[in-house]
Amino acid sequence: DAGITQSPRHKVTETGTPVTLRCHQTENHRYMYWYRQDPGHGLRLIHYSYGVKDTDKGEVSDGYSVSRSKTEDFLLTLESATSSQTSVYFCAISELATRLAANEQFFGPGTRLTVL
Amino acid sequence: DQQVKQNSPSLSVQEGRISILNCDYTNSMFDYFLWYKKYPAEGPTFLISISSIKDKNEDGRFTVFLNKSAKHLSLHIVPSQPGDSAVYFCAARMYSGGGADGLTFGKGTHLIIQP
């Protein structure tokens, strides 16, 4: 198993509070991703990172920010949580993808977030 | 607008028989397709992938077929085993040139293998 941990694994919070989810990897992979999984939607990309301090937006980035100050850590922050952000959040890592090969992404175990 | 569609939310197959999971896509810019398997309370795990320049890729019991003209792919599992019971996600990537592949996922198909 790829060395990816997510913390916390479960969190219940209230609307309007800030929340930070952490993804930590021991694989030294350059690329990291945050997805959310919701019933009826599959997984959707929130933000991704292609190196320390280099991040970009995904399909559903509104209401989320990310930071990557070290190769091994990728943080996802909900500045002011809303009930629509109740979801399961997955972090993923990968090696370099090229035109000739889509490198598989390795996923963490997920964080279940409930916003009341 | 769903660019990757898995129209069967669930599929029940008898142990030992073939399981066929289907996936359709709309964006002709997708150049790689991947299948992931997910157990409850775990992250997805990679199964098999196929480039858009190929029509078949095989790995043990798993084979993925791609019909580019129909924008359709399928995952075949032969023979189906109880441990194959899981949710299967079809995913597609559009090469962006930056080295990172943000994937577009379907909604998933829950495969149930019956004894």
Q: What's the quick description here?
A:
Chain A is mainly β and 116 residues long. Chain A has strands at 4-7, 10-13, 19-25, 31-38, 42-51, 54-57, 64-70, 73-78, 87-94, 106-107, 111-115. In chain B, strands 2, 4, 5, 9, 10 and 11 form a 6-stranded mixed beta sheet that branches.
Fraction in helix of chain A: under 10%
Task: Please provide the ordered H/E string of secondary-structure elements of chain B.
Answer: EEEEEEEEEEE
Q: How many helices of chain A?
A: 0
Uncertain stretches of 5 or more adjacent residues of chain A: none
SS field, number of helical segments of chain B: 0
Overall shape of chain A: globular
What Rg of chain B, in angstroms, do the CA atoms define?
14 Å
Would you write up a description of this structure?
- The complex is a heterodimer of chains A (116) and B (115).
- Chain A is mainly β and 116 residues long.
- Chain A has strands at 4-7, 10-13, 19-25, 31-38, 42-51, 54-57, 64-70, 73-78, 87-94, 106-107, 111-115.
- In chain A, strands 2, 4, 5, 6, 9, 10 and 11 form a seven-stranded mixed β-sheet that branches. A four-stranded antiparallel β-sheet of chain A has the order 1-3-8-7, with no helix packed on it.
- The N and C termini of chain A lie far apart (34 Å).
- The mean pLDDT of chain A is 93.
- In chain B, the strands form two sheets. In chain B, strands 2, 4, 5, 9, 10 and 11 form a six-stranded mixed β-sheet that branches.
- The radius of gyration of chain B is 14 Å and the shape is globular.
- The N and C termini of chain B lie far apart (37 Å).
- The model of chain B has no long low-confidence stretch (mean pLDDT 94).
- At the A-B interface, strand 4, strand 5, strand 9 and strand 10 of A face strand 4, strand 5, strand 9 and strand 10 of B.
